Amino acid sequence: MSGDHDFNVEHTKKKKVAFIGISSLMMLGMVVAVTIGIKDTGNGGKYNDDDDGLATSSKAARSVCHVVEHRHACERTLAHVHTSDPNKIVQTTFNAAVVKLEGALAKSSSIKVKKDDPRTAGALEACKEAMEYAIGDLKRSIDQMGHFDIRKRDECVENMRVWLSSSMTFLETCIDAFENTTGDAEEKMKSMLNGPRELTCNSMDVATELYTIFKSLKNTNTSQAHKRSRAEEKGKVNKEGEAQLWADLRERKLLHERGATMRADVIVSKDGSSKFKTITEALKEAPHIDANKVGTIVNKTFVIYIKEGTYEEDVRVEATMSNVMFIGDGPTKTIITGKKSFADGFALYKTATISIMGRKFIAKDIGFENSAGTIDFIFGNAAAVFQNTRLVIRKPLEDQDCVITAQGRLNIKGPTGFILQNCTIMADPLYYPLRHKNKAFLGQPRKKFSRTIILQSYLADSIDAEGWKQWSGTFAEDTCYFAEFENRGPGATLTGRAKWHGIKNISKHEADGFTPEKFYDGNRWIRPTVVPYIPGMVPK
Ligand SMILES: *[C@@H]1O[C@H](CO)[C@@H](O)[C@H](O)[C@H]1NC(C)=O
Ligand SMILES: *[C@@H]1O[C@H](CO)[C@@H](O)[C@H](O)[C@H]1NC(C)=O
Ligand SMILES: *[C@@H]1O[C@H](CO)[C@@H](O)[C@H](O)[C@H]1NC(C)=O
Ligand SMILES: *[C@@H]1O[C@H](CO)[C@@H](O)[C@H](O)[C@H]1NC(C)=O
Ligand SMILES: *[C@@H]1O[C@H](CO)[C@@H](O)[C@H](O)[C@H]1NC(C)=O
């Protein structure tokens, strides 16, 4: 299992800045020109800072607002932007979201909670924390834009999309924390966050526009600078890539010969034979990034080797911990079991056996189980691929159904989604006889743009013929993105499936786009860890 939310910010050396600075402006200049070319054809892609008198913002600025969901908010943000420098326009968009959010955070102190209402007080605390993280993610995006490296443009823009998605998720988490609280705190918080949520969403749309355009430019020679950077890129990939490949192979061999302990930063064991007895203690050793400090880098994977044993803890990989890897002794030997359950009254996101808020998390050879009996196996808003994972459906509480995934993508252009590839979905023997009473589903649209793809997996007959379950009435039936591709087993028959607009029949090409290499550039960040994984489709 691996999840990619976030990447390192690379600071370029001073010497290179001049060249990079100029070429990034050229590239971004083209971005706006292209946008104008589509939306504002009368101008032939040329624009200047003179205005036609209808609004005070530049044409370049206004053209950006054509691509966002909340257009009025965008126009208000850019109303007094006179520059045609696309980098500045993008940064202004991001900055506006930060300013609005910081305002909301300050204002949230005015929300009063009754002394005898710990639930609302807890929600308010959780919400403020989430807002701080959201601000941190936005600031990282601005910082990235300020250090835009043309040679790594795809990576830079992908970073921003991931941070912006994360920022949106934190704001959503903030509102979710108030579920079932009494009083008007939830309504107040919702109205305070309205503006910041719109502006964060717009920022994501703008970043996605850059991403789409860079991707489409990939194989065309558009400018001298572009040519040069591609040549540079290519030379680097050839030389370093090859060296890296050999290093990987050597290391992989070593890993095989000497066992995972060789590379672990810390070791956890139940029997006390190593320094840590719990995963939670070991995680404290992981390098933290300061949520409010932009540009902080975690450069190295922090490997926690968890020896055989059953660990009864609710593990939280915090947002400040990135590049953490768990390696166990095998899924039936190293087992993490949670303790909390929904029924105990914890907010949903705190009920998980393991919750991952940090980025670039990888887990291998570990079993996860929730002994308390929960509704969803895997939920949240992340870009996560589960490979060669066995998901065992266990007997739920009396009147519950079982749902494997409840993905929470919030923006139609957001980069997140759950991908289950070459997995096995099966029933526990105690559950199997109950499969018609307590039905099992592949997923549920937890949020409007929920996205889940079941790929090249084995589905046992315990999966209900409908396949997917409604969340609340017809909510998100049209906007979600659920797909099954090249699955096998009795549960993989598609004839009885629910017929929502959001349940897609995808092509091989589309399916390939959800494999680690294409979905989140896994070759860049997973390969260096030498963990074996499947980068593309499993050959038939
Ligand atoms: C909120 O209340 C509803 C209805 O009583 C219930 O179904 C749901 O589980 C509750 N949610 C939380 C987080 O307690
Ligand atoms: C792009 O440039 C390379 C070398 O600079 C050349 O071989 C190639 O044909 C060019 N492609 C296009 C589409 O112009
Ligand atoms: C990241 O790691 C590389 C290679 O290990 C090193 O050269 C570089 O200085 C590191 N960067 C930071 C910011 O620590
Ligand atoms: C896919 O899963 C099967 C077990 O279901 C396993 O035997 C096979 O090695 C996996 N394929 C890859 C490429 O890992
Ligand atoms: C999905 O599309 C393919 C062709 O793209 C078609 O052969 C197949 O029948 C379709 N499946 C369903 C369930 O509609």
UniProtKB/TrEMBL annotation:
What is a biological process (GO) this protein takes part in?
cell wall modification
Q: Which UniProt keywords apply?
A: Aspartyl esterase, Hydrolase, Membrane, Transmembrane, Transmembrane helix
Q: List the SMART domains hit by this protein, alphabetically.
A: PMEI (SM00856)
Write out the pathway annotation from the protein's UniProt entry: Glycan metabolism; pectin degradation; 2-dehydro-3-deoxy-D-gluconate from pectin: step 1/5
Where does the sequence pass through the membrane?
Answer: 17-38
Q: Does the keyword Hydrolase apply?
A: yes
Q: Which residues form a coiled coil?
A: none
Q: Which family does it belong to?
A: In the C-terminal section; belongs to the pectinesterase family.
Name the record gives this protein: Pectinesterase inhibitor domain-containing protein
Species whose genome carries this gene: Chenopodium quinoa (Quinoa)
